[in-house]
Amino acid sequence: MRGALAAAGPPAGRASGSVSGECRLARAAVTRLAEPGDELMGRWLAELGPEEVWRAVRADDRLPGASRDRWAGLRLRARRADPSRDLAAIAAAGGRFLCPGDREWPSQLDDLGPARPVGLWVRGPCSLRFVALRSVAVVGSRACTDYGAHVAAEFAGALAERGWAVVSGAAYGVDGAAHRGALAVGGPTVAVLACGVDVGYPAAHRELLDRIAGGGLLVAELPPGEHPTRARFVQRNRVIAALTRGTVVVEAARRSGSLVTARHASRLGRHLMAVPGPVTSSLSVGAHRLIREAAVLVSDVAEIIELVGDMGELPPEEASPAVPRELLAPEAGQVLEALPAWGALGVEEIARRACTGEAAALARLRELSCLGFVERVGERWQLPCPAGRHAGGGDQAGSAGV
User: Fold this and answer.
1) For the whole model, what pTM was predicted?
2) What Pfam families is this protein classified in (predicted)?
3) Which of these, 36, 138, 184, 185, could form a disulfide with 221 (CB 3.0-4.6 Å)?
């Protein structure tokens, strides 16, 4: 029972791990100070620790590398930062604040180096670490076509049915279709946001976001109440790429934001995949360029899992439609191959062509006749006649050797 509870993640409002309360409070404060992806802040945190960074900003003890203007901006933000209030707000929303060192922290985010998130504000019942272990990002154009929405939903649903979590950005278009596809089959899905997890952006996706939070996860680097900006949208893409084993770009125009996610995935050594679309569609230009340069073309979920799955976790081989003659025994198949497309042959010639005895050839011909593969014309054998063709009107060259 305890193992099952652990797998389900920590209770709402609590983050499990060995991170001290002071460290958690300081990191929560720093999420108010720095923008996502701030590498200078990341280096300060790595070298000095979050408690010292938070103390230095409040005490106006300027840290190395910060210009006067930059330091002044951090000081202004620090005046309004109240990490205790933010932690209380996320708990009231049924969420929690994760820090590096928590058991729920996904260690793959460490691949981002100094750009690693300071911490993550999370809403939802799942463990982010466990869900991210088997996850795929499905991203694409906001103004996608019906084709793009269909592919995103189908891929996401099939991935979820096979035990893979679908990660995206909760935007319009491909992102929303991917989340809905996973939810439709009861699978987990993770939305990485460019705002606070309590903001509900975009507004038309508030119901979708609530559904994701109910069975999956909402994840953000920004504290409660923060709203998105263009730069924050760009930076959240690096988290999507780092969290997952691979990124699938369904549709992307030449300057699509999903291409940013693709570039991050490639730099991080994650699998990069793209779905082909019509060459006449401007929304496939970016995806096609990825395929030419770095991405693997994928056309179904089996091909995705073949790339991102563990060794030995290959999809079942697709059974191609069986051609009736392929089900024949080898000896019968050889005799059938000995018959020409046009004209009839005697048993002796058929046996010679099939490299078998006359008795064996005759036995196989009788079997093939019962199955409808051949027909007898007097003392000769031929393939069934097409409509309108006379039995004796076969290829003269085919019967000349009899």
Assistant:
1) 0.77
2) DNA_processg_A
3) 36
